[in-house]
Amino acid sequence: MVDAKAGITNIKPKTPPLRLAWIIWGWGAVFYLVGFFLRVTPAVMTAELMQAFDISATALGNLSAFYFYSYVAMQIPTGILADIWGPRRLLTTGAFIAGTGIMMFALAPTILWAYLGRFLIGGSVAVAFVGTLKLAGEWFPTKFFATVSGVALFFGIVGAVFAGTPLRLSVIAFGWRHTMLVAAGVNFAICAGIWLTVRDHPAEKGYAGFTDDAVAADTKSRNQIISGTIEVLRYPNTWLLFIIPGGIVGCVLTFGGLWGVPYLSTHHGLSTAQAAGLNSAMLVAWAVGGPIFGGISDRIGRRKPLYIVGCMLAVIGWAIILFLPNLPLLLLVIVLLIAGFTSGCMIISFVFAKESVPAHLSGTVNGVINMGIMLGPTLLQPVVGLMLDRNWSGDVVNGIRTYTISAYHTGFTFIILWVVLSFILLFFTRETYCRQQR
């Protein structure tokens, strides 16, 4: 369009091509993949870690949960930082600190150093998902947000799959410490890739953005962002969606991230490698379920009904897995895959919450929701370990404690109670019909 008075041709810039958007977003997703890998690594190293540090199930549960302690604590600050710093600086800083934490964990001479390493890892990779969601909101059309969120979960679960059989084989061949040192090197390479490639907004590449406000995030005042955190808590959906996905993810990551491998090995007669492979298959199903649930939700224009159905099926599946130890192997595999797949419904939480608050609070509300999600494994992993130790019969194999089926059932009861609560609370959420709150 030509302005006759100014004699200047004003051409509205085009929005970024999807190929570029996927590349920019992809670096954040790869960091999230590594973060998820680190999240579940203790599941296939339980024996090695218990021997290396001479610890019980309770201490092992805490070692795994130290990742989640800092992860959860960082969620609201992460949402604030995503809005102040922008995703590029946030993700780069997180990746650098994560690499440092991995090295500390790999070289830890005592359990206290291992705790500190896991704590640094969790707090730093906590920025990955929220930063990736922030990139998705800036680089993709709004109609793709739930789908892209699901693909992000897929990337994360790919990381969890590498923390299954491939990690187990690497630990057997090279030892857990050397394997973790390699993971640190990979993470530092990702840090460099993010800094060199990622940009916060399409305008930095000469394209039009998809958000109304393309003002740089660091021009916003801290007071405005902090008041925004208080504001998102005034919406009932925020509170409900803070609690609901924690039960679903708590099931997946308490079982798949720590206690599933020893449980399947002890009470289903599987080798550690076979149990790790079955765990990985469940996590793959979870990865597939996320994009599918997100995509269907976008297509039908509803959030609540699909979420309810997915959660109901997940409750049934996990109840069967955790409390029926004599399942035939084929049936166990099928039910694990179904439970994993339907647990992918939790991805709806992010877009559901994002639509439930004004658009300018998207980064903050995503941090709040991700904090609630991680509360599940944060609380449940050590609780299950504590229940195992309290009900320990005194059996030791190769210097490692083993636990009875009744001890596992006592711990798993807490898992089921939370996911049942999640199912009930879903009925109290308010449908957004895929429209942004104004």
Protein architecture, described:
The structure is a single chain. The protein has one domain (16-204, 221-426): Growth Hormone, Chain: A (Up-down Bundle). The chain is mainly alpha-helical. A hairpin with a 4-residue loop joins strand 1 and strand 2. The chain has a two-stranded antiparallel ribbon with strand order 1-2. A two-stranded antiparallel ribbon has the order 3-4. It has helices at 18-40, 46-53, 57-73, 75-84, 87-106, 111-139, 145-162, 165-174, 176-197, 222-232, 236-267, 272-300, 304-323, 329-343, 348-355, 362-390, 405-426, and strands at 2-3, 8-9, 396-397, 400-401. It has 17 helices and 4 strands. Helix content is 74%, strand content 2%.
What is the gist of this entry?
With 438 residues, the chain is mostly helical. The protein has helices at residues 18-40, 46-53, 57-73, 75-84, 87-106, 111-139, 145-162, 165-174, 176-197, 222-232, 236-267, 272-300, 304-323, 329-343, 348-355, 362-390, 405-426, and strands spanning 2-3, 8-9, 396-397, 400-401. The two termini are 31 Å apart.
Percent of sequence in beta strands:
under 5%
Discrete helix count: 17
Could you give the count of β-strands?
4
The geometry reads as globular
Query: What is the CATH-assigned architecture?
Result: Up-down Bundle
- Overall mean confidence score, pLDDT: 85
Helix fraction?
A: over 70%
**CATH level-four homologous superfamily name:** MFS general substrate transporter like domains
What summary fits the major beta sheet? Answer: 2 strands, antiparallel
User: How many domains make up the 3D coordinates?
Assistant: 1
- Report the radius of gyration as a whole number of Å: 22 Å
CATH class: Mainly Alpha
